[in-house]
Amino acid sequence: QVQLQESGPGLVKPAQTLSVTCTVSGWSITTNFYYWSWIRQTPGKGLEWIGAIAYSGNTVYNPSLKSRTSISRDTSKNQFTLHLSSLTPEDTAVYYCARDQRRDGMDYWGKGTLVTVSS
Q1: If DSSP codes are grouped into helix, strand and coil, which group holds residue 44?
Q2: Cα–Cα distance between 60 and 35 in angstroms, integer?
Q3: Which of 3, 48, 76, 87 is the most buried (most CB within 10 A)?
Q4: pLDDT score, position 46
């Protein structure tokens, strides 16, 4: 079955760049026509979609985070990675990765990894 597992640093300092990696098993991230998304949930707020990388390697981002976000992938390891720069404490959240069928929604999710931004 499809499984996703996030791995991240746990604690990062303000102004630094966060890198969180999602390792996928049971499905290739290059399979047509799936996307692979990053989503976060901040304390007191709902889920916020951050961006996605497509099976082709193209990327799409939430306009509100686009200037600070990039998503890359390593197809040899079946992984994709979120990079979020210029961190502030407001970026403290649980970060999730998910398989994204776009109009049909996100059907497989990782368990999430808590990232705290604090000095």
Answers
A1: coil
A2: 10
A3: 87
A4: 86
* pLDDT at residue 43, rounded to an integer: 79
- Asked if 27 and 97 count as a contact pair (C-beta separation under 8 A), the reply is no
- How far apart, in whole angstroms, are the C-alpha atoms of residue 59 and residue 52? 6
The region, left, alpha or beta by phi > 0 then psi within -120 to 50, assigned to residue 51 is left
What residues have CB less than 8 Å from 64, skipping those under 6 apart? none
CA distance 45 to 43: 6
Q: What is the percent of the chain with per-residue pLDDT over 90, rounded to a whole number?
A: 93
Residues of the chain with pLDDT below 70 are none
Provide the pLDDT for residue 78.
Answer: 98
Task: Locate the DSSP E strands across 1-119.
Answer: 3-7, 11-12, 18-25, 35-41, 47-54, 59-61, 69-74, 79-84, 93-100, 106-109, 113-117
